[in-house]
Structures are given as C-alpha cells and as structure tokens.
Write a structure and sequence with these properties.
Blueprint: H1 9-28, H2 33-51, H3 56-63, H4 71-78, E1 80-84, E2 97-104, E3 107-114, H5 120-125, H6 133-148, E4 153-159, H7 166-170, H8 173-186, E5 191-200, H9 201-208, E6 212-216, E7 220-222, H10 226-233, H11 240-247, H12 251-256, E8 262-264, H13 275-290, H14 298-317
Parallel strand pairs: 3-4, 4-5, 5-6, 5-7, 6-8
Antiparallel strand pairs: 1-2, 2-3
Helix pairs in contact: 1-2, 3-11, 4-13, 6-8, 8-9, 10-11
C-alpha cells in the first residue's frame, strides 16, 4: 500500500475509492469503467494541482518520503559491474556511505553514495545515512584512488547530515568532513554529484563539492534541517515550515542562487511514484553533465572547480 504524506490526503481518498471500485468490478462483475475513469482523471488533476504549488516544507517531506529511491537503488539501476569497496584503512567500515567501482554507460567510474536504508533493519545498519569520520575518510581514500586510476567520480547524496554523536566528534568528525571536501575539490578527475533526497549540512557537502552538482526536483539541500533551524531561532521545532521557507532549500531556489548546476525533473507526484522514470532521468542528467568534463585536463578541472565554489562566496558578498 502506498504511503501518503499529510498534504496528499485528498489524493489518497480518491485513489482509495478507485481501488475499491476496481475490486468491486472484479468480484461482482460490475461495469463501472466510466466512474473509475472519471475518478482517475480527478485524482490526476488533484495530483498535478498539489505538486504544482508545493511549499518548501512540503518539498522537504517529499525528499524524506520513505518510498523514495535511495542511493543503493540508483547504484543498482545505473551502475553495472558493481564492485563494493570498504574501509578507511584506519578505523572501520562505515555502512552509511556506499562505495565502489562500476561502469556507467560502459565507462569505468568510482561511485559514492549516502544510504539511509528502506526499513528499520537497513536504516539501523546504515545509521540512517549519517556517516561517521571513518565514512568520510573512506570517501577521501576512494576519491584519491579514482584520481590515480583516472576514474570519474559520481556521488549520490541523501543524508540529514553527519552523525552528531560524541564518539564521532572524538574521532575527528569535522576534520574528516573537511578532508573529504578537500578531496572533492582537488580531484584530478571529473566529479558529478546528485542530491537525490536530503542534502544536509557538511555531511552532504563532503560528497557534493563537484564540477557539476545536480539536484532532483523535489530534493532539498541546506546547511541545517528546518527543524534544527526552528529549534535554534524560535526554540520551537513546530516552526519548521517557516524555517524551510527562509532557508531557500529547494532545487529552484538553489538553481536561482547558482549553488547547483542542474535541476533533474521528477515524475508527477515525486520520484517515489515512478522510481524507474526518476532513475532514468538521473541517468540522462549525469551523462549530460559528465560528458563535457571527460576531455578536460586535471589542472583545468581543479581550477574550474575551485573558481566555481569561490565565486559563490563572492556573489553572495556582492
């Protein structure tokens, strides 16, 4: 059964009615095709109208939808000959960040992705997509490996942020994130990042400081979650919808501010309604972003990448 968000209740009611009528027609041999068609058209109109005017807070909810495709789904769909690589060679393996070698459109690539998990067991196993220092050190190690073997890097970002626990701070969380960002910026190979769900704080930037930063239409990308922002500014997490608007965290906002490079369209109703179509759109967008970068020299890639991110600060100051 499909999971509906709070603002989708009118759509849920219509689709539930459609399902009931279809079951009745099957069991009682009733001819109610016209009624089903009428309700289906009405549900489609309602869906289009709802998703045409989503607020920033509603987009945040869509980005967190439990049925939304995760990093592992994109890797399975887009990457062939997948060979996982693990460990930071210093402390441990971090399952919050998936990593490995594979082929994208026949080309060998290094792939990294923050994985939230799809059910209770897998969410716990992947620590809800919140990486610890060893995860970011693994990411740095593999980005450096990609540079040595001249492999483009593709990352899929979906995390509420880096793990905030005491043990992570004790092991150098901030330094590990900074080094991962540095590895992105210094990579002598193309780096294409895709924000597929949540892009939370430094935990997201650590894998998203690329030549091309793509963002799904209903993804969000921000320095802090709306709830965290509301708790700090108003001491009240229920002010999250207000904070979401102020944070300018939607794909349209960030494209307008020149903080991302491309918005990847999603199927009507979000990626969770048609995962295959969503992943096909991401595949096309990654190919379009990666292809022009492949012929550039390492020095040019680095210079362009550094200039791109430094310009963001200058533009904001101006």
């Amino acid at each position: 059964m499909r999971y509906f968000l709070d603002f989708e209740k009118p759509i849920a009611e219509l689709e539930s009615k459609i399902d009931e009528l279809r079951k009745m027609s099957e069991s009682e041999d009733l001819n109610i095709a016209e009624e089903v068609a009428r309700l289906t058209e009405k549900a489609d109109r309602q869906l289009r109208a709802t998703y045409a005017k989503l607020s920033a807070w509603q987009k945040t909810q869509v980005a967190r939808h439990p049925e939304r495709p995760k990093a592992n789904d994109y890797i399975r769909a887009l990457i062939s000959d997948w060979t996982p690589l693990a460990g930071d060679r210093a402390f441990a393996e971090d399952a919050a960040i998936l990593s490995g070698l594979g082929r994208f459109k026949g080309r060998s690539v290094m792939v990294l992705g923050t994985e939230k998990g799809v059910d209770t067991e897998s969410r716990v196993a992947h620590n809800f997509g919140m990486a610890k220092p060893e995860g970011y050190r693994k990411a740095r190690r593999l980005m450096e490996m990609a540079g040595r073997f001249k492999l483009p890097v593709i990352t899929f970002v979906d995390t509420s942020g880096a793990f905030p626990g005491v043990e992570a701070e004790a092991r150098g969380q901030a330094e590990a994130i900074a080094r991962s960002i540095e590895a992105c910026l210094d990579a002598p190979v193309p780096v294409v990042a895709v924000i597929v769900g949540e892009g939370g704080s430094g935990g997201a930037i650590a894998l998203a400081s690329g030549d091309a930063v793509l963002m799904m239409e209903h993804a969000v990308y921000s320095v802090i979650s709306p709830e965290g922002c509301a708790a700090i500014l108003w001491k009240d997490a229920t002010q999250a919808p207000v904070a979401a608007e102020a944070l300018k965290l939607t794909a349209d906002d960030l494209k307008r501010l020149k903080l991302i490079d491309m918005v990847v369209p999603e199927p009507l109703g979000g990626a969770h309604r048609d995962p295959q179509a969503a992943m096909a759109a991401v595949s096309e967008a990654v190919e379009a972003a990666l292809t022009p970068l492949l012929g550039l020299e390492p020095a040019v890639l680095r210079a362009r990448r550094w200039e791109k991110f430094l310009a963001m600060g200058r533009d904001a100051a101006g």
